[in-house]
Task: structure prediction
Amino acid sequence: MNKTKISLNISIGVCFAVSAVLFFLIFAGPQIFNLYFVDFRGFDAKGEFIKTIGKVFALCFYPSAIISAIILYSLLKLLFNIKNGKVFTEQNVKLLKTVSYGALVISVITFVSGIYFMPFLFISAAGIFTGILLRVLKNVMQSAILLKDENDLTV
Amino acid sequence: MIEVNLDVMLAKRKMTSLELAEKIGITPANLSILKTGKAKAIRFSTLETICKVLDCQPADILKFIPDKE
Result:
């Protein structure tokens, strides 16, 4: 029981840490982009390549950041629900559904960006797998709710 | 459907539902689920203890009512 609690708190901590990283990336994104492509890879800062790739990055990154924020909010809500003992509820199924669709939408966005910048395709593949995984988890949760209802109403 | 008719037997034995819940070792909330017909299933062990405590047969508290269609 105690181990479950510790594990739950670790999950909540990780979620908050990832939120902090996301917040940092939203503001530091352009600087990191310049640091890598201009200073490290040595592309011309005013060249055609940087202009195009910069647009692709911005168009891919900022919508994804919004969706990531929604995903993190859902995950935190889910974790606090579990902490309060409400594990197998319809609300949690909805939250998992949101997260799974979020992952799939991000994978679509990165797939389109992948046409212009190939490495994005790897993120897209990871997103598809995350989305499918969470969908299966959602189905498991739905079946668990049925079992719990049955169990609760058995005297 | 199956109707649970605990009230009659409780009245015969002059027992309150709270007492019964205590004697068969289930919470009053669960007994209320049973009495209001919300229960989906009843464990044999629960039925056994109820029969033992109320000194009756299952037929005295359970009744089958055919569905009206």
